[in-house]
Amino acid sequence: MDFSSRRAKPAYNTIKNRNPRYMDFPLFLIVLSLLGLGLVALYSASSIYATSKGQSSLFYTQRQALWMLLGLGAAAVITRLDLEKLRKFIKPLLVVTVVLLAVTLAMPPVAHVRRWIPLGFMKLQMSEFAKIALVLYLADFFDRRLSLIASDPRQLLKPLGVMGVMLALIAKEPDLGTPTLMFVTGLFMFFAAGVRLRYILAPIAAVMPVFILELFLHPYRIARLKTFLSPWDNASGTGYQLVQSLLAVGSGGWLGKGLGASQLKLMYLPEPHTDFIFSVVAEELGFLGSMVIVLLFLGLLIKGVRIARNAPSFYTSLTALGLTLTLAAQAFFNMAMTMGLIPTKGIPLPFFSYGGSSILASMIAVGIILNISSHRNQAA
User: Fold this and answer.
1) pLDDT tens digits, 257-300
2) 3-class SS shares of the chain: helix, strand, coil, % to 5
């Protein structure tokens, strides 16, 4: 899928013909559906857990609903902005993101990891916003430098270096799931920009030794890999969370046990309202209910790619593609993880998993995509 044909217009063209009535409302309805289902699923998954912590059964649901409203407000504002005029802020945004990722590593650890900056009213997880910053930077870079890359492949060292620094800081938290997601999305953007395949395979080859080294430097990661391959061998130890997730998904059957009737959320599945919320959904709604959610995310992917293909400039085309792939890949990675198809990683399910940073970052991405959909290419 080569999006480089969108480069027919000048790099710094002013996009005209922006009109809210052109906005992709089916995509907006898909997102609203996911938010609604996510809030219902969160209440079901978190009510008993919240009570066990001495909180109201609505504690997590109310806080999530507030973040959703703030996210919708942020998306509404973003849909009205001129993305071309905001390009001059991309590099400062990137610098601030890198600095805050470094600050995160200096924060007190929570459960042996440093992923949040405590702000009082929320715990800011910068890795969620780093996904957006990286996509915007890569889209801007390729729009400015694509003509130079063909004659001087060394131009690619800059975006690869920037991506490497960001991924290394996040991996240091430690977190390998988010860097993997960002790395995959970044390489897809390289490919969509028309970068030759051999230049895309080079960073993959460079990352493999680092990945293997990370496994051997941290024994718990090797244990997690073994658990992924044979979770039942240590079902009461390292494989406990994955085994409980598999039991929840498998026990749902075709139609599920009914909304609110999950048994694995009764303190068997650890923190069912975060990364493993899809397990509770699958148990309560069954295969058919789970497929509705899968199809909604698939619809988001299809609509986002179409918006990217119809975008009025190369920059907006790559931006829409990168943000769409980020949301869709994160969703499919999370669902695959709960079903034991990939190793367990701390990747939230967009619009479902509890967390203010995740919801805000997802809605900012949606706002940018909807903004791009409200334009029409003058040549079209």
Assistant:
1) 999 999 988 878 888 999 999 999 999 999 999 999 999 999 99
2) 70, 0, 30
Residues 6+ apart with CB under 8 A from 255: 285, 286, 287, 288, 289
pTM score, whole prediction: 0.92
- Note whether 68 and 39 are within 8 A (CB): yes
Q: Which helix (H) or strand (E) holds 52?
A: helix 25-52
Q: What angle do CA 214, 357, 326 make, to 5 degrees?
A: 60
Q: Give the tens place of pLDDT for each residue, 204-220.
A: 888 888 777 877 777 77
The DSSP symbol for 154 reads G
C-alpha to C-alpha distance for 124 and 100, rounded to whole angstroms: 10
- What does the alpha-carbon distance between residue 145 and residue 200 come to, in Å, rounded to a whole number? 16
Per-residue CA distances from 303 to 79, 191, 332 (Å): 16, 20, 16
Give φ, ψ of 3 to 5 degrees: -95, 5
Separation between Cα atoms, residue 123 and residue 65, nearest integer Å: 16
Who wins on pLDDT, 13 or 100? 100
Please report, as a single letter, which amino acid is at residue 173. Answer: E
Cβ neighbour number for residue 155 with a 10 Å cutoff: 18
Sole residue written with tokens 């694509």: 146
Q: Mind listing the pLDDT tens digit for each residue in 175-191?
A: 889 999 999 999 999 99
CB 107 within 8 A of CB 114: yes
Cα 254 to chain centroid, rounded? 28
